Amino acid sequence: MNCEKKSRREFLESVALGIAGAGAIPSLPKSEARAAAGEMTYRTLGRSGEKVSMLGLGGYHIGVPPGEQESTRIIRAAIDSGINFLDNCWDYHDGDSEVRMGKALRDGYRKKVFLMTKTDGQVKDAWNKQLEDSLRRLQTDMIDLVQFHEVIRMSDPDRIFGPNGAFEAAQAAKKAGKIRYIGFTGHKDPDIHLKMVNTGLAHGFTFDTVQMPLNIMDAHYHSFAKKVVPVAVKHGIGVLGMKPLGGGIILESQTVTPVECLHYAMNLPTSTVITGIDSIEILKQALEAVRTFQPMTSGQVVALLERTAKAAADGEFELFKTDTRFDATARYPEWLG
Q1: E-assigned strands of the chain?
Q2: Positive or negative torsion for Cα 166, 172, 175, 179
Q3: How many beta carbons lie within 10 A of that of residue 188, not counting itself?
Q4: E strand or H helix at 265, and its extent?
């Protein structure tokens, strides 16, 4: 009987590989599975040892509600529900997302969270100015994690780590106690992510985190999950999943539900899955995904891959990989410095 079960499992895994293409889809370590029913689950952020909520609050959508009061209500409700990982960026809504988050983190909320933001600057002066802007807007003298944002060109790693590059500025800011950890983000091509990791290693530096699109469509097309996640795990780099619903575009394929999308991303070796939340209703939906999450079997993964294979084949529902509309620094190259 045990042999039969093993054969069945191996068969399902081979089917998953056949559907998703070459390379394995990594899965969540059992030690990071989930907390007791009804509670938030906390996972380890790479080799840092920090414990972060498996669900992260996306910063862009915090700037969407028409008023600051609603943004504050969403942020504080999320924190009160156990979410402690907060995402943001210097350029979201011309800085208004950071302003709103800074106001929401008053009254003792700042000490309850692991605060992350992102900077576009790739040279020292631009990076330092953006960091100071973020510190002021977020109303804090220290940001837990700052990430180089939109590493989407093959030339970006060389510029960031080059003479007068932003990496030197980030190291100095960390030494000064303004930031605690350093990471990077990107959404275009897994090979660019690998170059960024390897460029860091060549300079004697291992990133603390790496943020990338991790969703059910990614498994089929230019997959970050298959190419980047195993490398990050190998080096103890915390994996931050983003775009689990692709900004809602994945749902237009009518192949998966929002909760299925979140469950798939949570089933990868992610430290946290960052999702956009612009209403209390969407917050409740995301928390329901946390409450109901169980590590997925090979059969469940195969079923999702089968259901989404055709829709995902050419990147139609991952426009951030195939189109320039998500490339903010392409529209505003001056942000790079």
Answers
A1: 42-44, 51-53, 55-57, 85-86, 114-119, 143-148, 179-185, 209-213, 238-242, 272-275
A2: negative
A3: 23
A4: helix 258-267
What's the pLDDT at 129? 98
- Dist CA 300 CA 102 (whole Å): 40
Percent of the chain with pLDDT over 70: 91
**pLDDT tens digit sequence for 187-220:** 999 999 999 999 999 999 999 999 999 999 999 9
User: pTM above the 0.85 mark?
Assistant: yes
Residues in contact with 56: Cβ distance below 8 Å, sequence separation at least 6, in sequence order: 83, 85, 86, 87, 240, 272, 273, 274, 275
Element (DSSP H or E) covering residue 319: helix 319-322
226-229-234 Cα angle (round to 5)? 120
Query: Regarding predicted confidence, which is higher, 32 or 28?
Result: 28
Token pair listed for 112: 């309850």
Q: Which residues pair with 212 in a beta bridge?
A: 241
Q: Phi first, then psi: what are they for 328, rounded to 5°?
A: -60, -40
H-helix or E-strand containing 189? none
Q: Using DSSP, state whether 267 is helix, strand or coil.
A: helix
98: left (phi over 0), alpha (psi -120 to 50) or beta: alpha
User: Average of pLDDT values for 130-147?
Assistant: 98
Compute the distance between CA of residue 46 and CA of residue 34 in angstroms, rounded to an integer.
17
Angle between helices 124-138 and 96-104 (to 10 degrees): 40
3-state SS assignment for residue 90: coil
Provide the pLDDT confidence category of residue 85 given band limits of 50, 70 and 90: very high
**pLDDT band at residue 33 using 50, 70 and 90 as cut-offs:** low
